Amino acid sequence: SSADNIIDGKAIAETIRGEIKEECAALLQSSGVTPGLAVVLVGNRTDSATYVRMKIKACEEVGIHSFKFDFPSDVTEADLIAKVAELNADPAVHGILVQLPLPGHIHEQKVLDTILPDKDVDGLHPLNLAQLAHTNTHGSSRKFDLKTLPYHAACTPQGCIELIERSGTVIEGKEAVVIGRSNIVGIPVFLLLMQKNATVTVIHSRTKDASAVCKRADIVVAAVGRAEMVKPDWIKPGAVVIDVGINSVDDPTSKKGYRLVGDVDFAGCKAVAGKITPVPGGVGPMTIAMLLRNTLQGAKRGLSGGNGN
Ligand code: NDP
């Protein structure tokens, strides 16, 4: 229950970015290739523009080329899909990222589904999610290495796994509970933990007695979108708690009038957990690091001529 049981996502993400920078330099040296990420931004949402700026800056820092494409908010679905097709065919582009959300008149999944799975560095294409479930893809050794997957796994879920492992927890053989079953977070986290040989239970909105189920877990990953839902009496003493949630709650004492909290009651659960991630500063910083790593891996796979798709 002291500061030293907090998992520092900022520091771990920084370490990973350093590793990626070295690998990009080595790749350039050995084969003259610089990984390339294309980022498509539609409209003028300030939050989306901020995320895109952060991603492009992160690319620059590690030695990944970035290509930015801006479209007005009234762009047609056909024009967006045509841009994606062009990027699919461009050999300098190893990763394509369409910043979400898209304006209401555009069918988001339809656009995402046109990205080649090999260039889908967000890992949101249904084929990439399916690859994660397809155990034959990973061989019979049950060794599952995120850095050498032949396809792209979703970024935030990969970030959760890295936080667990790099803070010193072996996943194999553990009892894990994932709260939430979205395509973007809950389901891929469940699949990653299972591939890492944990025994995994998924809690969702129809689960009876979620607190009792959660209390069995050595590892808890919460991805619900409900402020501070997970209470101290849900947590087995010593468990590792990863909080994916980002919720804004009113706070008249803060300058902005609100503050961000996770899906976990941090102050309460910190006293019970073995290790726990804060919000912000836990899972958040990992997502961009995993995007960079997927782009680098995409460039490397392109060179070896092989891929899982
Ligand atoms: P979704 O809303 O898509 O999914 C939420 C899931 O939680 C659903 O599966 C839902 O169950 C389940 N759920 C809802 N209420 C309950 C309940 N009372 N008890 C148990 N389960 C419940 O959210 P996302 O997965 O997209 O995101 C989850 C959180 O993570 C959000 O706060 C989001 O902002 C954050 N996030 C953070 C990221 C980061 O980089 N740090 C990236 C992505 C998301 P059911 O399926 O039955 O409806």
UniProtKB/TrEMBL annotation:
Matches recorded under Pfam families: THF_DHG_CYH, THF_DHG_CYH_C
GO molecular function: methenyltetrahydrofolate cyclohydrolase activity; methylenetetrahydrofolate dehydrogenase (NADP+) activity
Catalysed reactions, as listed in the record: (6R)-5,10-methenyltetrahydrofolate + H2O = (6R)-10-formyltetrahydrofolate + H(+)
Keyword Repressor on entry: no
Ranges where the Tetrahydrofolate dehydrogenase/cyclohydrolase NAD(P)-binding domain occurs: 154-301
Record-linked Gene3D superfamilies: Leucine Dehydrogenase, chain A, domain 1 (3.40.50.10860), NAD(P)-binding Rossmann-like Domain (3.40.50.720)
Domain Tetrahydrofolate dehydrogenase/cyclohydrolase catalytic: 7-122
SUPFAM superfamilies reported in the protein's UniProt record: Aminoacid dehydrogenase-like, N-terminal domain, NAD(P)-binding Rossmann-fold domains
Pathway(s) it belongs to: One-carbon metabolism; tetrahydrofolate interconversion
GO cellular component, one term: cytosol
KW Hydrolase (keyword) present: yes
Alphabetical UniProt keywords: Hydrolase, Multifunctional enzyme, NADP, One-carbon metabolism, Oxidoreductase
Top-rank taxon: Eukaryota
GO biological process, one term: tetrahydrofolate interconversion
Assembly notes: Homodimer.
Family label: Belongs to the tetrahydrofolate dehydrogenase/cyclohydrolase family.
Protein name, entry field: Uncharacterized protein
Organism, as annotated: Nannochloropsis salina CCMP1776
